[in-house]
Structures
1.
Amino acid sequence: QPALSGDFSAIMEWADAARRMKVRANAETPVDARTARSFGAEGIGLCRTEHMFFDDERILAMREMILSDTEEERRAALAKLLPMQRADFVELFEIMAGLPVTIRLLDPPLHEFLPKTEEEIGEVAAAMGVDAERLRQRTEALHEFNPMLGHRGCRLAVCYPEIAEMQARAVFEAAIEAAASTGEPVVPEIMVPLVGMASELSFVKGLIEGVAKTVLDEAGVKIDYLVGTMIELPRAALNAGEIAREAEFFSFGTNDLTQTTFGISRDDAASFLEVYRKKGIIEQDPFVSIDVEGVGALVRLAAEKGRARRGAMKLGICGEHGGDPASISFCEDVGLDYISCSPFRVPIARLAAAQAACRR
Ligand code: PEP
Ligand code: MG
């Protein structure tokens, strides 16, 4: 494991004594979670569960699930994924040993899970025992022209509730197991992505609460948990007061919030933003540093509306900006409780959070 040593470690401790905001990491693999801890992360602020389904065994079951015709078939495919997902979460909870862990429900652009080649279609067809031609048609029917604005985030949980239910079951079962093995209470934070309306969150939260009740009753135990949401669409920021009725925490997804506020694709921006910068039209890349007048104004507004509705609700950021010192300074001004960034940026985030606190 990488670690901070000697004098550097001492400087980081001074910084920790000065800062107000907590520093978490974005991590979903055991390696990343251990790296994050060795760099001083105080929790996981974003576990992107979609990244957990891309290895060979899992993607096949995931494809079977998405390409199934009936809920019953989907549930059968999900049953194969449940033990793997549960083991993923047990390991993360054990590594984090009682520190907060925010698990985000599946947030893929759906096309990332669809078979792309004839060979892949044949493989899934064989696993499902169906005709390859039928599967090809089903794959085509799920094609989207604008996947980043399409079937992703909480929309997936609304259309296929059984996916969210499988993931929630895995979270609660894992929390029970990890609490027993570590002796530390595990309080999972379940995060719903790409919410734009309170009614979306209320629907998904209902699914999560239903599963929590079933699993906890089955096990005869009680655990605390939080259900919250990402604020990553302008509509969510504008309606944060309503959304806060349902959400126990907000985490600002500034990657998507920048994309949707600017109307600029986060995957294609580099080519022309560089020209914009050279010609003096913008000073800095908004995907690197929070654009204070636009995205930042939405973050500030949502934080104010959320807190006005729910009092001291927990507020964090998990977009890439959470590892950028200038953005961290902005987060301090807004009064966020924590920043979450990639594991290797945790040390710089600890220093930047301390610097921002000292400046106030
Ligand atoms: C975000 O949109 O800022 C975010 C953290 O989610 P993702 O990058 O996974 O879309
Ligand atoms: Mg996002």
2.
Amino acid sequence: MPVLIRSEAGDALPVSLESLERTGARLLGQYGLDNAELSILLTGDKHMAELNRAYRRKSGATNVLSFPMSAGEEPGGAGMLGDIVISVDTARREAGLKKITCHRRIERLLIHGFVHLLGYDHERSPEEAEIMLAEENKIIDNLKRQERRNAMVNLAINVDHVATLREARGINEPDPVTAANICELAGAGGIVVHLREDRRHIQDRDVRLMRELVKTKLNLEMGASDEIIAIALDLKPDMITLVPEKREELTTEGGLDVAGQLTRLKEVVDRMKEAAIPVSMFIDPEWKQIEASKKAGATFVEIHTGRYSDAASEAEADHEFDLIVTAAEEAYESGLRVNAGHGLNYLNTPRVAALETIEELSIGHAVMARAIFVGLDQAVREMLDLIRLERANRKTGPATAAFPAP
Ligand code: PXP
């Protein structure tokens, strides 16, 4: 039992011991200390003040104390890493001041105590304090990434095609804004629109209304032109996805060449960061583009699944799929959040949805095509069912590649 957790802080604990135990195990795992033992005690201010006096000659309670077990040895070398004692009373007060939940605060204190057990000490010097804080932030990032890896994949629906139909008649129906609402009611976790420079489908009015009405997440797909950048900065979507844009193309054709225009794109990312808008780069599944996206400061990459979707043979699809798997893993491991999309349909989506490094799928055409026959609500629900089934199956067996054709 690597994590031994115990509470003497009363019955009404503002934290789940199971959850803290899991966090403790993940902390040990991050440092390859899976076999080491970590003991966690939740207590109150009274006991904490006694410990503080006895071991540090300080008066009053403190939030967390660490007692390394193997003084002079490698942390965890002797099997027992040490004890962490947390005062729930102090954590509760600090959580109130920081306006976070007490659970979050206790988790944060656990991480702080753990880093002390590893030998870091912020009290030694300001430089060490910085190093220790960086180590804590690294752990928090890793924990968040682990949580995402285990989470359900999100489905974002691209409603451009509804606007294409509207523009074909030059009237005001069908309305992509209504479509966005229906998609959300059916369970979509995000709405994507591409505001093209030529305004061939989505119009400025659409994105303005969606900014107000979309309740999940509005992802504005866009080329990196000055005009559209200004609109995005004003609109403040929940995120933007930078795509290459050519006037003569029917749809986005290839991934963005981030490596080839790194300086310019980094500038765009910096401007978006100032406005707190996360940026995703729509890229082909290539390491060069992942690396460049990271250098540009992107938060996400969206891996272009077009070549996989358009593959003419099973062998070609397998080859393209392998590229997606590798790229998603590489991007994830380099700290990027990973989305995927383009050309995904009811047959080829499950395989991609099963990849645990992928956080979100962006799907448009297939859902709208099916919606013509079964209705938009049902088309979205069917895609969601497929994705959920695949994620649920992930633990029990290999990904299926097919879905009964309509
Ligand atoms: N992701 C990006 C970046 C796109 O440009 C598009 C097409 O607009 C999609 C996803 C959705 O592709 P599809 O309509 O083929 O599902």
3.
Amino acid sequence: MDNREENRHKPHCLVLPFPIQGHINPMLQFSKRLSHKGIRITLAATKHLFKTTQQFSGSISVETISDGFDEGKADVDLDPYLARFEQVGTETLSELLDKLRDSGRPVDCVIYDPFLPWAVVVAKKHGLVGAAFFTQSSSVNSIYYNVYKGQLKVPLLDKEIAVAGLPLLEISDVPSFVRDQDSHPGSFELVLNQFRNVEEADFVFVNSFYELEEEVTDLMAKILPVKTIGPTTPSMYLDKRLTEDKDYDLSIFKPVNSCMKWLEERTNKSVIYVSFGSMAKLEGEQMEELALGLKMTNKYFLWVVRSSEESKLPKSFVQETQEKGLIVSWCPQLEVLAHDAIGCFITHCGWNSTLEALSLGVPMVAVPWWSDQSTNAKLVMDVWKMGIRARPDVKDIVGREEIVRCIKHVMEGEEGNEVRKNAKKWRELARKAVDEGGSSDRNIQEFLSTLESIAP
Ligand code: UDX
């Protein structure tokens, strides 16, 4: 490298995620991708997140801001939490940008989670590029945007819901915060508020890829500067020849890595992986039906049951199934999904889990819980045809027989052939999207060119 090259200012992005696992992971992985492309990254974590998560290795620096709850927010409701975060966060983000400038590491761009829509205002006050990073699918963003703009009226009165670019939706396919906003008033405001100030953003990134959601992405791109940049799944999992930082870091939960050794001992596509992400709290009865369904299949299973959910497991289930099953409180999910032993993923269809399964070619059994998950489940089954959505009973519980039926559907026999074929197709398309010259890679390059053109 000659001196001129060395002295050139490396564009510097400050990345601000909302401090929950499902939002930290994709923004962190995106940061790593940018860092590999020569961008300097500073991640802004809340003080509490910084104190309570596994610490960082690799190329990304972490600095802290405050959400006003440095010792943890305990059971503070969402509304007062967001209000305080906005007030204290605006101030401390601004101070951090000043500090980085004064210490010779000026920031060029703030990439922010639109759950924190005030961040772009701070970025603009500092004369910086602002980029919103939407952690959910283009389809779900479009539903929220239509509600935000009053084009989709709530409460939903029709039996079928039409949103441009999407298949007709039944009420049960619509994100729970929209279909039942009275039960989640804070969350309803939160998802609509993502569009507050968005017109100030120079880029609107979506963790998806163009080939997955073409029509709806094109429609959204007519309104906002939308760029699909995903999947953020690290390249080494998409293409086993590649190596790069694979760990999630900033992990709120500690993974039980020994499950990988257990998987090593299983044959190809023989194991059912079960996980409901970082937030879902299943009904006791649902846990029991799931457990009994798994037992009835007599197949191997690896089940993530967070410590807070453990007491809902049926008594003596662990002991009775120890020949076949392994239960862990958290696992290295990407490594698990990328393992040849996994044949099926029973998932709540959180967007990260859905996209990770799509891009690693693992057929899904969808058991959505709340938020965007029912929409993701609808698309997995009817559009991407990469899995099946389990049918709940009248009490909204997916029974044991239904669990068995769905597992058989994707893992065995003729009817699962299409799902398994599509699993390969989506894995290939996801890999191509982020490979050099692919749709997501081109969008990232365009962003990098903009940063390079403005960097001093
Ligand atoms: C939340 C919402 O619930 C989800 O609907 C929304 O789309 C994103 O925010 P969460 O419920 O945690 O996320 O689910 P998901 O989006 O699937 O994210 C979970 C993340 O944790 C994934 O990246 C997954 O790989 C990781 N994970 C999960 C682990 O690393 N280990 C585990 O054992 C389980």
